[in-house]
Design brief:
- With 420 residues, this protein is an alpha/beta fold.
- The protein has three domains: 3-159, Beta Polymerase, domain 2 (2-Layer Sandwich), CATH 3.30.460.30; 164-307, NAD(P)-binding Rossmann-like Domain (Rossmann fold), CATH 3.40.50; 341-413, no CATH class.
- The protein is 53% helix and 13% strand.
- It has helices at 15-21, 25-35, 66-75, 92-103, 115-129, 135-154, 164-175, 191-202, 215-225, 235-238, 258-267, 303-307, 311-339, 341-367, 372-400, 404-413; strands spanning 3-9, 41-48, 52-59, 88-91, 183-187, 207-212, 228-231, 244-247, 273-277, 294-298.
- The chain has a six-stranded parallel β-sheet, covered by helices on one side. The protein has a four-stranded antiparallel β-sheet with strand order 2-3-1-4.
- The longest helix is centred in the C-terminal third of the chain and has 29 residues, at 311-339.
Length: 420
Amino acid sequence: MPLVVIGINHKTAPLEIREKLVFTPEQIAHALQQLLRLQDVREAAIISTCNRSELYCHLADSAPSEAVTEWWGGYHHINSQHFSPYLYIYREAEAVKHVLRVACGLDSMVLGEPQILGQLKSAFNTAEKRGALGKQLRRLFQHAFAVAKQVRTDTAIGSSAVSVAFAAVSLAKQIFADLRDQQALLIGAGETIELAARHLHGNGLRGAFVANRTVERAAILAQEIGAKAIALPDIPNVLHQADIVVSSTASPLPILGKGAVEKALRQRRRKPMFLVDLAVPRDIEVEVAELDDVYLYTVDDLESVIQDNMASRREAASQAERIIDAQTKHFMGWLRAQEAVHLIRHYRERAEHERDQILQKALRQLEHGRPPEQVLAYLADTLTNKLIHDPSAALSQAARDGRLEIVAAAHELLHLPPDL
């Protein structure tokens, strides 16, 4: 039964395409429910981040993936023709290898970044809670998590602090020579914002505001870095105080508009503002970039900054690829073995049934006074004949028909000398 991955990411699709196909955290549970209603979908999981959206599916035998693609477009009210050129579709071994590479951070904008592993685990947990996982996908995710741990243990893939958040802070340091004189506004309270907050705080940032839909969650992060927590509606009141704005929320609509930034610039007397929008869909209206004294960057803009920090990870990535190749073969071996499970079970049940029948006959012979040694000989001979009759007849017929591949397979299966 085929494993399939259908997705888009920062390599295959521009931001304006990715943001139309993204699933918000609130949507994923409902989307899984709808996806599983498709006739050929047996199991499913969805991961959706700022850089990628992917559907992991276990489909019925020989089922086409087009129905899943059509469903994806329909869910977001987009004709699949508008985004299908940007999709990648992997099946079986390619799908397994892709999931392992994603888990290890080898398919990320930031090579080896660990954040995607947490997002993959979140996707796994959501699918598990919704009953969307079966034997194959559950095993695949668990295998991916184990391989990611092995790669981080056996290679230096995570030795340097490189991430999208780190790249954003690196860029801020290029624009502002000394962050100790700057103040930041952090919008959101997820993992990306947490990383950005810690990097900024570690570089001596003068102060910060943390804005979030849930103020209580913002307060936890704010306390950690000595910042002030505010609600999203309070952003216009403090925006003019922010030299640096980093935003990463799951909002389907922009948080910051051109008008609010324009007003803040007037209050700042045209003092420059550095804004980084790490969200998909975007948190900051694209028109903000048109304003003077504004430096606005999106996740796609950060790629060139990130590349400057990657040299130390490339050799480790090569080592990781070798591990992933070996672990892909290992998982595919397990997957192929599952195809024989029912056959083995049926064969064993039939053998046990024949054993029980012959044993009952032997016990009756003992009850009627037949000597035990004769009963044991009867039991051994009859059971042997029963068990080898069908395979022997099939081998004989295969030889007569010239089906030598079956005869050759019998040598391996039955551990017979090859020269017989």
